[in-house]
Amino acid sequence: MNIVLLSGGSGKRLWPLSNDIRSKQFIKIFKKEETNNTTADEVYESMVQRVYQQIKRADREAVVTVATSENQVSDLVNQLGDSVGISVEPCRRDTFPAIVLASAYLTDVLKVSPEEAVVVCPVDPYVEDDYFVALKDLAKQVDKGEANLVLMGIEPTYPSEKYGYIIPDTANHTARVKTFREKPTADVASAYIKEGALWNGGVFACKLKYVLERAHELIDFADYQDLYAKYDTLTSISFDYAVVEHEENIQVQRFAGSWKDLGTWNTLTEAMKDNVIGKGVMNSSCENVHILNEMDVPVLAMGLHDVVISASPEGILVSDKEESAHIKPFVDKFDQEIMFAEKSWGRYKVMDVETGSLTIKVTLKPGHSMSYHSHKLRDEVWVVICGEGRTIVDGYEQTVKAGDVITINAGCRHTVVAVSELKIVEVQLGKAINVADKETYQLDC
Amino acid sequence: MNIVLLSGGSGKRLWPLSNDIRSKQFIKIFKKEETNNTTADEVYESMVQRVYQQIKRADREAVVTVATSENQVSDLVNQLGDSVGISVEPCRRDTFPAIVLASAYLTDVLKVSPEEAVVVCPVDPYVEDDYFVALKDLAKQVDKGEANLVLMGIEPTYPSEKYGYIIPDTANHTARVKTFREKPTADVASAYIKEGALWNGGVFACKLKYVLERAHELIDFADYQDLYAKYDTLTSISFDYAVVEHEENIQVQRFAGSWKDLGTWNTLTEAMKDNVIGKGVMNSSCENVHILNEMDVPVLAMGLHDVVISASPEGILVSDKEESAHIKPFVDKFDQEIMFAEKSWGRYKVMDVETGSLTIKVTLKPGHSMSYHSHKLRDEVWVVICGEGRTIVDGYEQTVKAGDVITINAGCRHTVVAVSELKIVEVQLGKAINVADKETYQLDC
């Protein structure tokens, strides 16, 4: 099975654990199926890790490609390793360009035959393994050639106002699609469901060549490289508007398994097996309380009901679970710097912000390094607090260990390579400290 | 009026804002009466600051002495300045030795006549100005010489189980004390109140010589210096057990004004004028919610009722207000380092804890300095991030400013003097980092 996972933008509905650079699909909150391990990193996995494992259980040979933007590449490699394909969108242009780019990546870079089926689905459904078996069935249905597109229709469990609806022509497992309906009111949704309507979960399968043919009708491009180069000139348009609405020959396959959209704290905590992740204690009178704490200090909860508490270096949320769906406008008002990030090379955390200085803690994985770079407007002082490594400053290489101090003046080219896990307190000093103030260079040595 | 304020121990009932070294009386949560200022430090004052201002309004000439332990001296000087007298208990020995030491301090150090009255009261009542007028009246009653001790009896507002009761012989404003009752059950308390009983708020007045005479009967000492020197040999005993229980000639004066004991988050938040102190936002469906946030990142509260949220570098409390009285056993289990402190010279905050290193941020007020000291088991690296000062390292003096790095090896004597407000990131490095690893020296230069 060829599967393209659409990995969406950042979103703030799971603030403070998601932020402008960490999307919800990378938060590690799902307890792994089997584990004898003890650290949080070993016990918990993220949505994207969970989905990837599920796909591999359903189909060991699956070719998995994630369609996403540049700023998620670090997180993806960090969490999934090198075995996953990544179709990097140079900028955001909605689902049609993203799916076309990923399809071109499959045929032109991975050399998959255009005759093969591809399944496209969001990266963040919370589902069981049967869902991925159903995805394989979609691909098999495509192979039969009865329709140009085969959608997954999820059997509704309530008249939701959050989803679009698919109206099939029969109640059979596989049926022709009669029509689509936009997100309705609850009353209208009830009526649809009586007619036999299914939820549209944004999942479909088709032959690769089908996507590429539609693409060439709408976009003038030669191949993957060409499309990538002109990606920023493309019009933002969804796959539904560009393709599905104009297609007469569509089938739908019913899916009756468990399917959840974990977009808010309320739905997310329902999927958590442990009530506390991180340092947290609650007394016996707490009911239906979840604590997700990424800070080093403890959270104590007493006498709360139906509340989620989430703490990270970005902030602290304490919300009634129902109301947690409405945090976005409040979070949008927080004018905040990014306070932490996980990268393919390790992680960093902002420790202190002052006028004229910023102090961060950088942790590099063994064998990893920073880019060789310089800053125009700031000096830096590094104090190594753990591990061993090699620094290169203006071409001069030296080994460093805990206790060593490296001063880097503005303009100086510098990098560090971790030999063992390396932790550095970095004090940035200057009048205009800015992440954009960075020039990178090739290392000659 | 001579007034001795008993400043008690740390206590964890207001965790995470109180900790082993910051007592509740130093937390700044009370809005100042009049202010056009904007920073939290300018808008809010602590219990001890509030009480001190109230005493000065009631009696500009009041001689105020705080009886407390060494570890509160920094906070006291920091918050009250040099105008308050401090009777430092070398170790904790309950209220009788503490009151005797403070009385000896008044007569021997401040040269107050033993014939003068002294009023003794806890440092942390939440009261209005009329309370301090009533304290003056206690002293005046002592001057009349009708009784050896004059107590304040607070008119009960409900049958509390938290307080001892005083039974007067009449309902007059000033009456003789018939007897005392220990903390009763609510039923028994109701019966006492029907008999005309008053709460014992731990406030009394007497002549200084009365305390000293009782003291010489029980303790063999010459004067203040002698008592101070042998303080650790004294028996722990309360003033009630040592003196009040054996005294026949006691009067009580009724006090009908507002009087609150702000010992728990529930009672404390009742006294707060603002619902949010620090960075915090709540949505319109929050009711009776208080946020006290000492962190640099925001707290967002949604849909909560009767909840207190309190966050500091020590941890995060989210509690139903009623249940907040019961946090102590949970907090006792947190095995935690002190993460922040305010001192007379400035403040410090722990930024990061690693095996083999501890990173702190030190802020020194202009003109202040650290002691000249050394550590046996750790090296230190200082990075100056703000301000100007002078460091002395093994006798070698240099001026420092933002961006300067000072490395201090184990054994090296060092200090820094702030010229302007000075902020330093201090990285401590060593296998056994410990606050006790500190030797201090006289500076020759």
Describe what you observe in this structure:
Two copies of one chain form a homodimer. Chain A is α+β, with helices and mostly antiparallel strands and about 450 residues long. The first copy, chain A, is about 20% helix and about 35% strand. Chain A has a six-stranded antiparallel sheet with strand order 20-21-22-29-24-27. A five-stranded mixed beta barrel of chain A has the order 8-11-9-10-12. A four-stranded mixed sheet of chain A has the order 14-16-18-19. In chain A, helix 2 crosses helix 5 and helix 4 packs across helix 7. The longest helix of chain A has 16 residues. The interface between A and B is large, with 60 and 60 residues.
Shape of chain A: globular
* Structural class category of chain A: alpha+beta
Record the strand order, biggest sheet of chain A: 20-21-22-29-24-27
Oligomer: homodimer
Largest interface: A-B, 60 and 60 residues
Major sheet details of chain A: 6 strands, antiparallel
Number of helices of chain A: 11
Query: How far apart are the termini of chain A?
Result: 43 Å
Helix content of chain A: 10-25%
- Structural Rg of chain A: 24 Å
Summary tags:
alpha+beta
Can you lay out the helices and strands and say which pair or pack?
Two copies of one chain form a homodimer.
Chain A: E1 2-6, E2 28-31, H1 40-43, E3 44-46, H2 47-58, E4 63-69, H3 73-80, E5 85-89, H4 95-109, E6 117-122, E7 125-127, H5 129-144, E8 149-154, E9 164-168, E10 174-181, H6 186-194, E11 198-207, H7 208-218, H8 224-229, H9 239-242, E12 250-255, E13 259-261, H10 265-270, E14 276-277, E15 280-282, E16 290-293, E17 299-302, E18 307-312, E19 315-320, H11 328-333, E20 340-343, E21 346-354, E22 357-364, E23 372-374, E24 379-386, E25 388-393, E26 396-401, E27 405-408, E28 414-418, E29 422-429, E30 439-441
Parallel strand pairs in A: 1-4, 1-6, 4-5, 8-12, 14-16, 15-17, 16-18
Antiparallel strand pairs in A: 2-3, 6-11, 7-13, 8-11, 9-10, 9-11, 10-12, 18-19, 20-21, 21-22, 22-29, 23-30, 24-27, 24-29, 25-26, 25-28
